[in-house]
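Most newcomers find our protein records easier to grasp once they have seen one. To make this concrete, we reproduce a full record directly below:

…
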Amino acid sequence: MEKPLSAYDRAILQLEQDIMRMGEHVCSSVAQALEALVKQDVALARQVIEGDALTDDWNYSVEEKALELISLQQPLDRDLRALATVMRVGRELERVGDYAENIAETALRLADKGPYFKPLVDIPRMAELAQAMLHRSLEAFVARSILKAREVIPADDEVDRLFESLYEELIEYMKKGPQFVDQASYLALVARYLERIADHAVNIAEMVIFRETGIRRPSKAIEAETRDDPDRRRS
């Protein structure tokens, strides 16, 4: 006969379920933002932007519940790592939601600039890889699987390669003439957002490993952001 879950364990389980619902919403937002970009769909882009408030609310709720548990239960070791992981994964998803909103905002800016100067191939491919990484990292989170988490990390190299290749191609288009500059610069931003989404998926996977082992590596997304914006290092 299985031992019934304690109130504390039930609270942790509820937080994990909240994170998974938040993850489903964020994954959907990323997919819809890309669809809005590809189809130049203004209504869908606005829908994604409006939906970001829900992600923020979810993250705030998860943090509040987790902090209350820490205050009341004063957990140690594995239990404390579980709550730290929940809060960190919530923050990672909130950042992914912000990038989905950024992509949707970019889709709005591009919607009135006419057809794209070339078919969008690499950006949807980057999006496909980044979304797959995000899905797999969340699967690792809910399964508490080190193996599944480790499978996420190598895929980031392919996203980075696609980003570098696409960025160089877009720079070459901008050199060809001013008629390409607006679209190319905005598409380069979208590629950067997708590269960051992949970084956050890696961070989630690494937090799963931390939860199970106590071993933690520096956040790749934070390293990337401080490299691009030196002022963040001092904040």
